[in-house]
UniProtKB/TrEMBL annotation:
Family the entry assigns: Belongs to the cytochrome P450 family.
UniProt xrefs under InterPro entries: Cyt_P450, Cyt_P450_sf, Cytochrome_P450_3A
Protein name stated in the entry: Cytochrome P450
One of the Pfam families matching this protein, by short name: p450
GO terms, molecular function: heme binding; iron ion binding; oxidoreductase activity, acting on paired donors, with incorporation or reduction of molecular oxygen; steroid hydroxylase activity
Length: 114
């Protein structure tokens, strides 16, 4: 299957999954060109090399916490449902990037965090 056929197929699936009036279409992934370009320009400075490098220590700290949670399970050779840990890791990284350090006494953070 050619790239053009793949693109046409993806476009058809996208149209089936979303309605033009849905909020989903207002995001970067499903937006059409003029709106996509505007959204991309707004988000672009947030993902510059310098900004991503500045986030590295925060991501490393979060990864260290994940490793600390998984080490005992690995030493006991436990089977782990990694989806839960991956979701928690993603939540922690996005929350810390958006809001800084987390308040671990917040019940929402305690429930969703690694």
């Amino acid at each position: 299957m050619s790239r053009i056929e793949n693109t046409a197929k993806l476009s058809a699936i996208t149209k089936e999954l979303t309605d033009e009036s849905e909020h989903m279409n207002k995001g970067l992934f499903f937006s059409r060109y003029p709106n996509w370009k505007r959204i991309r320009a707004i988000h672009s400075p947030s993902f510059s090399t310098g900004k991503l490098k500045a986030m590295k220590p925060m991501i490393e700290k979060t990864m260290d916490q994940l490793i600390a949670k998984l080490d005992p399970k690995a030493s006991d050779q436990q089977i782990v449902d990694f989806r839960h840990y991956y979701d928690s890791l993603t939540f922690d990284v996005i929350t810390r990037a958006a809001a800084g350090e987390l308040d671990y006494f917040n019940p929402l953070i305690q429930t969703a965090s690694i």
